[in-house]
Amino acid sequence: MLKKILLCFCCAALIIFAIFAFITKNEKPTVIENNTLIPNLTEQELILNSDLIVDGLVKDIGDSKWSNPTLIEGKRNILQTDIVVKINEIISGDYAPKDVVVRINKGYDKNTNTIVESDGYPDFSVGEHVILFLSRDDGDLATNEDYFVLTGMRQGKWSLDSKTDPAVSSTNKNNNNLIANLKSKVKEEKANNPNWKAQKVERDAKIIEDNKKLFGE
After folding, report:
1. Distance in angstroms between the alpha carbons of the first and the last residue of the chain
2. Closest C-alpha to 81, from 56, 57, 110, 61
3. Does domain 32-212 have CATH number 2.40.50.120?
4. Which residues contact 31 (CB under 8 A, 6 or more apart)?
5. Do the Cβ atoms of 159 and 132 come closer than 8 Å?
6. Are 132 and 91 in contact (CB under 8 A)?
7. Are the CB atoms for 185 and 47 separated by under 8 Å?
8. Using an 8 Å Cβ cutoff, are 152 and 41 in contact?
9. Which tens digits make up the pLDDT trace of 29-49?
10. pTM of the predicted model, to two decimals?
């Protein structure tokens, strides 16, 4: 008799768990929208403000993580996602690894079933062909990890995949022409601005100082 009662109890528990899991799985996620004002950058500014410009393929999209999960006072808590991109070619800058990590401030937190959307950052898909204008993180959320952020936020991503961006041709010929033209433009801008590195260092230092005043040490 006791065995039958225990068996019934276990079955009931499994049914309740299955129902809870089904409801949780099918529950609509909470969506948080972050609208951002982004200064428009010219192609010249994209080039001269970037530490690295690459032609690559999106290899992986990591799990999203909060920047301040323990809610330390005085620090922002932003949901961030790391995008791993296989480098086909470095158009500008020096970087040894074959893959580069790009961190964006948006994503999906599976633990709380929360989506954070931002019009300031683009979406990525695995296998997507992209040109990325990248900078080292000089913001208040910067860490010592080896990653980059998009120069000009969404402006720092050019998709060469017609499935992602219908305005872009899917032909290799046109993509090759776009990359060749960009290389030429990079060479021209650097020649016309011989002090661009020193000027970028000054700009980065000012941003860091402004962030300290805004968010504290």
Report:
1. 67
2. 61
3. yes
4. 114, 115, 117
5. no
6. no
7. yes
8. yes
9. 999 988 888 889 999 999 999
10. 0.79
